Amino acid sequence: MTSQSKAAPGDADANQAPGEPPAPGVVDRLADGLFQLVLSPFVEIGALFTVLWQTLVQAVRPPYRVRLLLASAEFIGVGSIFLVSLTAFFIGAVLSLQLVDGFRDFGAQSQTGAVVGLGMARELAPVFTALMVSSRAGSAITTELGSMRVSSQIDALVTMAVNPIQYLVVPRVLAGLVTVPILTLVFDVVGMFGAYLVGVHLMGLDPGVFMERMRWLVDWDDVRQGLIKAAIFGFTIALVACRQGFHASGGAAGVGQATNRSVVQNAIAILALDYVVTAVVIGQGL
Amino acid sequence: MGQASTPVETPEARADAVQIRIQDLHKSYGTHEVLKGLSFDIRRRKVNHIIGPSGSGKTVLMRQLVRLESPDSGQILVDGVDWATLHGLTLDRMRIKFGMVFQMSALFDSMTVFENVAFPLVEHTSMSKQEIRERVMDRLGILGVAAAANKSPAELSGGMQKRVAVARALVRESEVLIYDEPTTGLDPLTTQTVDELILETGERFGVTSIVISHDMASVFRIADRITFLNFGRVEATGTPAELLETLEPATLAFIKASGVSQDILDERSRNG
Questions:
Q1: pLDDT tens profile A146-156
Q2: Closest CB to A159 among B95, B234, B248
Q3: Contact at 8 Å (CB) between B178 and B98?
Q4: Looking at CA atoms only, how far is residue B41 from chain A in angstroms?
């Protein structure tokens, strides 16, 4: 039997441990709050890059979890086809409608197919696909991992000697990298179909001119530019979503806040990366 | 098991009886020091309770014990090996000795009960599907939840989830089982069932049980050894009878205020 300390609970000073400094004053807390505010973006970026590094390291280490990768690809990719197709159809349709109406003023409505095709391949398809995947799959990933975190399921993985980054993050990030470009191709095709339907069947454009002008302006390099962006967006969406869920805390409310941060950060990241990647690919603007 | 009197021990037997020795363990978060030099022993094949009021450092200690975190300084000697310093594969191999039953059971929502219990075997052994099935069903059968094998964890009651969590922790033949607040949020009847489960599991599988708890009634019912933490320090450690003899009146008042009846205290004082 040992007795190492004589401080008894239930004493008058029970809320403060013996020898601990007094609680900080209002000015100290205000200064601390401001400091945290300035520091928080750097903390976020640091945490994201830490998860990125761990993900890259774990991605090349066995075991390779193909079944989890396929399950994640099914969730992110297959599960998003309908939403992405629906978005693509209406984006293509409304773009066609606007362009025919706008170009008609100076007799250039024959260029509608070309402009829709170019905009779709380079910008609209990767950006809208990424935003849709972020809204649907990214938020769900954050919620799932956040729930696992606050209910100690991630800790349980660690105690069973299973690396949670390898088990949970790597398959999702790789699935995002692979499936978002495929979804972007789906967006391209369905979007052009929507544009064709409205431009040719509703607005009376000549179908041959519509298709020929598109083929004349849009080439493989434009599609490739969109696919490169989509791959970067897909990787980023899954990484940000996993990072937010993985480090969620504070119960159900904390998971909700993490999901909110995930969607907002992904939207900003997609739009910012879009500019950076475009500038790099076309070699100007940076 | 819980109420058995301790025979007279030689120094060698006493040393062997200690499975985990914690020495001068410190852990801080920023400037807040939570563990302030803990030193105590965990006895082999006994029910070792770690108790204390909220904020005393119980959960932080548990996180160091299962290496969810690393201590700032000090040692956690498991059978003589300081596992606070282990890393990588050596650490993973050492983890096999430990099974963890989390407060909320922490069963994987996306898997069935069977898949949850089979998970450690699928991940870390080369057992065939048939061998895994036999081992898992054996554990589930012993713990009385074999009928729930194909259910999802969400379909089970709190007590049954605890049983499944114990089955998962034991499926790889762990030597040490750590229970984090196993009776928190459970009704009195389920609490008693979980207490019995801890005792039965310890006896049947010969494991060392470490129970982190602030359910004093439960502690004095089943504990072989109790370590009382307060403000990150060990207030006292020993058998329940020793603890009751040497604690200060204020601490005893705290224990009684936590819901322990005088009858239980008297019985543990008499029986040790």
A1: 999 999 999 99
A2: B95
A3: yes
A4: 11
